[in-house]
Amino acid sequence: MAKRVVMCSIALLVAGLGFADPGPDSVELTRTATILGPASSPPDHLLAAVTVTVAAGVNVAGSLTAFAIQENIPSGWTYISVDSTPAPAVDGPDPNNPEILNFVWVELPNLSSPFTMTYTLAIPASSTGGSITGQVLYRTSGGPLTSVPVTTQQDFFNCLLMTRTAPANYRAGDQVTVTVSVTSFCGTSSTQPLTAMGIEETIPATWSLVSVSGNSGDIQPAPGATGTLSFGWTTSPAAFPITFSYVLNVPQDASGNAQIDGVILSRLGPSEELTSPREVTSIAYIPTALVPNVTGQTETDARAAIEAVGLTVGTVTRQCNNTQPENTVLEQSPTSGTRLDLGEPVDLVVSNGPCQVTVPDVVGQTLSSAISTLLSAGFQIGTATQQCHATYPGETIIGQDPPGDSTALYGSAVNLVLSSGPCQVAVPNVTGQTQSAAAAAITDAGLTVGTVTQQCSDTVPAGSVISQDPVAGTQITSGSAVDLVVSNGPCQSVVSVPDVMGQTESAATAAITGAGLTVGSITTQCSDTAPAGSVISQVPAAGTQVQPGATVDLVISTGACNAIVPDVVGLSLEAAQAALSVYSFTVNTTDACSDTVPAGNVISQNPVAGTLVSSGISVNLVVSSGKPIVPDVTGLL
């Protein structure tokens, strides 16, 4: 069966169209017909719209005095109505001959531009086609009546009509299902035997066929076909309606409204190929966008990326996360690559920072064990302070903040309190008390009364304590002695004790002797605040009035009390000694061969790194002497 592409309106074969360019005293008539489809009720005939266009020469357009159109239609075809502006005063069949239609105007149309009218005809289902012959009847001022006949041949349509259903809208990347139905308004079977039948469907250029199902004939394109899809029957269907569907794939870059245009091609016997009215379906394009991948981005950047493609940010849910920083996108829905209509939302799950987790209870553990436990649970180590404890041995955790089994943010710091061993006794403040009351207070605190020195005072009554050593609040071992300076009454000539706190021993000595006093006992004591060699305390205190030549006892700092041993394994011996000297540690070394540690570098250390020890202790290092030397035993027995 021959195939041909047919325009949307059914073309009529027109003969004798008149003048290509109307002469000044002539008129040209052209005619087209469009099949409107079967009458809705009953479905026993076609409706055809016949459009007549008249073009006139300049003399006719300016001097028209009478105007009419006469149309000769095939027998059995009937006139229904006309649409024209201005409307004809007379329209319809000649009373004596229903095959002649007369259209007469009293209000003459303006022929300075082409004039068009459309009239509707009913074509019986039994019709095999026919011709329409028509002419324009017109008169100009003082001129005779003139006519220009035009004949049109109308093809037969065989009662077949196509209907098509498809989605009203599509999106790029969709699969669109199209359903085609063929009906005969002549009944369930053709009134005349079909010798061939096919359907041509013209789809958008870039769309492609995916699959076909239903009664689609024996001839059809394979999947992937584009352009015009042909469906044909080698044995024409005898009964109607018939229905089939095909699926089209829409490219990812498709845009703009789409149109599917189809026609039924058929033949009766050896006759020329016949066509149905064309069926045109428009499918509106819905603009879409692919969802971008915004996981791992900040919420601000994610919003910008989503809005940049024409989508919106939907629900934003916040959720704690121990690995992603605050305001980082953890999840998105839909996932990236999903196609959405413009303006549709993308929901986000955004990190609001670390989660609250349970803090391990490390009280009773050693410092190294506690650090390992806390780090494994995701916490950092905060400050580490020392505090004496009656039962926990030194280097044992006796307190923590936050406490064990409480909750805190993942990654936050836990401060530790480390036992320094048994507690020391705080020296009570006995200055100003009588000697007996002071002795009782010292004894009650678990201490003993040490040396009692008499000294005159113009401010402290006789028998009362002028000063004490150690001073009040000093932590000392239980049973230690507290020396007292007791007033023996007003001084006849006194000296004010200078303030030597924080001075070096030599500077303090010079200041004391310069004031007419003498340096008494000098003791040493560690201090985490006073530099080594500087005065931590003095007795009597600065400003105390004493007799000339009285002694002033000093306590000199030996440096920091405690230190954490640094990690020097792998360092050269010189670098290790420099790192240890910062904490006043002394270094003892032992050489050992090693296959892995370069000569001169530290293999191991004791105490190990991280141990909390007293400042100034010895740290033993094992230093590599290099790989062992294999002796030459050649020739030996």
Largest sheet: 6 strands, antiparallel
For the biggest β-sheet, the strand order reads: 1-10-9-4-7-6
| Shape summary | elongated
Poorly predicted ranges = 1-20
Strand content: 35-45%
Question: Could you say which structural class the secondary elements and strand pairing correspond to?
Answer: mainly beta
Number of strands: 45
How far from one another are the termini?
111 Å
**Helix proportion range:** under 10%
Overall average pLDDT: 86
Question: How many distinct helices?
Answer: 6
Radius of gyration: 57 Å
Describe this structure in words.
The strands form 14 sheets. The chain has a six-stranded antiparallel beta sheet. The chain contains six helices and 45 strands. By secondary structure, it is mainly beta. The model is unreliable at 1-20 (pLDDT under 50). The longest helix is centred in the middle third of the chain and has 10 residues, at 299-308. Strand 18 (258-268) and strand 19 (274-275) form a beta hairpin. Helices cover 9% and strands 43% of the residues. The chain is elongated, with a radius of gyration of 57 Å. The chain starts with 12 loop residues before the first strand and ends in a 13-residue tail after the last strand.
